[in-house]
Amino acid sequence: MAYVEIVCLLIFVSSIFNLIKRPRIGANEPPLVPYRFPIIGHSYSFSHDTGNFLKKCKEKYGEPFSLYIFGNVRTFTGVDSTPEVLRNSEIFDFHMGTNKVFPIGDVLRSFTEINTTYMARVVHEQVSSKINIYTSRLQKELLFGIDKFFGDCKEPKVFRDIQGTFSRIIAKPVANVILGEECAQFEDIITSFTVVENELQKLRFVPKILFFIHPSLHRFFATLPLKFGWNPISRHRDLFVQRCKPIIEERIRQRKELGEEYIQKEDLLDFFISESEKDVVDNEYMNKLFVNLYQIVFASISTTSRFISLALFDYSGRPELWNEIYEEQLKIHNESNGILSTEDVNKMVKLDCFLKESFRYSTDPAGLPHTLVSDSYTFSNGTTIPKGRDVYVYMKDTAFNNIFFGETSNDFQPNRHITSYRDGKIIHTPAARIDRSFITFGGGKHACPGRFFAVVEIKMCLHKLILRYKIRTENGKIEPPRVLSLATFPSISGLIFENRNY
Ligand code: HEM
Ligand SMILES: *[C@@H]1O[C@H](CO)[C@@H](O)[C@H](O)[C@H]1NC(C)=O
Ligand SMILES: *[C@@H]1O[C@H](CO)[C@@H](O)[C@H](O)[C@H]1NC(C)=O
Ligand SMILES: CC(=O)N[C@H]1CO[C@H](CO)[C@@H](O)[C@@H]1O
Q1: Ligand 3 atom 11, closest CA
Q2: 392 Cα: distance to centroid of ligand 2 (angstroms)
Q3: Residue 30 CA: which ligand 4 atom is closest?
Q4: How many domains does the chain divide into?
Q5: Distance of CA 151 to CAs 154, 194, 431, 464, Å?
Q6: Strands (DSSP E) along 123-167, which ranges?
Q7: Who lines ligand 1 at CB under 6 A?
């Protein structure tokens, strides 16, 4: 028999064996929720009605609990045990966990080494801490996008694919901050920003059944194309090189020529150029720049456009909120003469509370996968999980918990984020602040470093839209988000825009 046939036979036998075998779990482990069908385990219930399924599991088995999904035991933490995972970032590895779901790390590493700690620091120091510098450019680019994609709307007009539209609108200001004014001029670069993340999906064609045989087999086949030199984002890297290399060379030339006199440009491209020791713009140099810059593209575009769309649907379906929010925007618009500063954005308290409530309301059923990298971990509850276990956060358990939000936790109430004191003082918890009750941006050391930037950008965009248009849903009712497996997405129905001034 040929080798190939022997190997096939072995794989076949081992897969049969694995398929009927029940997962083994240790004595002190969190309860493994029982399931009826050995091969499928919880995969079906989990993918089809995630929110309700997790709710029932927690009610019956407490937390944390484990599920058998796609050939893998995964542990889920609820409101009490989640902080333990987010706090102990040394042993619960966020990047390893995420990479299993979305192999961004594998894809980027084929170009150059990546350092996620460094990237988080850069976003914090160079993006979120510098919002003041970026506000006027953000505003200009957002207005440009709103004009281009929504236009005048003298007559009421229906827009579909809201999230797609916002990813186009958002990509322009983000490109401006990341690549700088010059590179952000190129239409094809903007398009590339909006689609590059989807390209990664092409690595996920590998059938889930491989997971049952062994999870590492699935990963092996999923990343096989990379080993043969096919990379789903090469096209985008080539475009980046074609468009931006001349600009980068010019900047480096000026740097050399002016020396001390050179005034650093306010964008991430110039920051990375200044950090680099080399000044020869070769392939290696361009790969490094590409990976550093596009990591931020991956982290920022789809998240921001998803949440801005969710917020707009929340707004459009609730006419009772319109007046209050509109009045606030009008006042700030008058006071600022239409040119917003960071302070003006901070004054949008009603809008901020609305946004925070929208974030809370559209929290993903579960997410934030972390892989345990220490030998074992014992939850304060007494249950223990072994090394290598993937731990998911059952996020809705926190976002809709009565402990934090009382009996009204299921209602949409922006004002819950405001506390008024008897002496007239009003305090609100800002949308970008994370705590035990609010984990849309994660928590602990790895909490999203771009959240301050994201919140300013979303508020600015909503402010402009609300001032200019009346926006409602097609049927006049609330359009609830769609839940696709673990994540929440905006409805695919249309929104009607109508200019306020006609
Ligand atoms: C509404 C928009 C956004 C949401 C909901 C969001 C959410 C998140 C979440 C949940 C995490 C993981 C946190 C954890 O593990 O505890 C994260 C990480 C991250 N986000 Fe965001 N994000 C948004 C926008 C942005 C933007 C605009 C940027 C960049 C400008 C950004 C950059 C990052 C980076 C670099 C990380 C990795 C942090 C680390 O590894 O320590 N995010 N984000
Ligand atoms: C990654 O970056 C951090 C912070 O800039 C630095 O302290 C660390 O040494 C870097 N790690 C590697 C492996 O280069
Ligand atoms: C804003 O200015 C307009 C025109 O100047 C005025 O009619 C309106 O009352 C002002 N609104 C607020 C909230 O200050
Ligand atoms: C703090 C904590 O995680 N408590 C849990 C301990 O286990 C019981 C039963 O499994 C749960 O009901 C608690 O929530």
Answers
A1: 331
A2: 27
A3: 10
A4: 1
A5: 9, 20, 29, 12
A6: 157-159
A7: 86, 94, 116, 119-120, 123, 127, 296, 299-300, 303-304, 307, 368, 440-444, 446-451, 453-454
Query: Could you tell me which of 364, 350, 393 has the C-alpha nearest to residue 306?
Result: 364
Would you state the structure tokens that stand for residue 72, as one six-digit string? 């893998």
CATH number, domain with residue 329: 1.10.630.10
Q: What is the pTM of this model?
A: 0.91
pLDDT string in tens for the chain (502-residue length): 566 666 666 666 666 655 566 667 777 889 888 876 665 667 677 777 888 889 999 999 999 999 888 778 899 999 999 999 999 999 999 988 888 877 778 788 888 888 989 999 999 999 999 999 999 999 999 999 999 999 999 999 999 999 999 999 999 999 999 999 999 999 999 999 888 877 776 666 555 555 555 666 666 666 666 666 667 788 889 999 999 999 999 999 999 999 889 999 999 999 999 998 787 889 989 999 999 999 998 889 999 999 999 999 999 999 999 999 999 999 999 999 889 999 999 999 999 999 999 999 999 999 999 999 999 999 998 999 999 999 999 999 999 999 999 999 999 999 999 988 888 888 999 999 999 999 999 999 899 999 999 999 999 999 999 999 999 999 999 999 998 878 899 999 999 999 998 7
Give 72's contacts (C-beta < 8 A, 6+ positions apart). 211, 215, 390
Residues 6+ away with beta carbon under 8 Å from 277: none
Give the range of the structural domain holding residue 475, as residue numbers without chain letter.
3-499
CA of 299 to the centre of ligand 1 (A): 6
Other CB atoms closer than 10 Å to residue 425's CB: what's the count?
Answer: 8
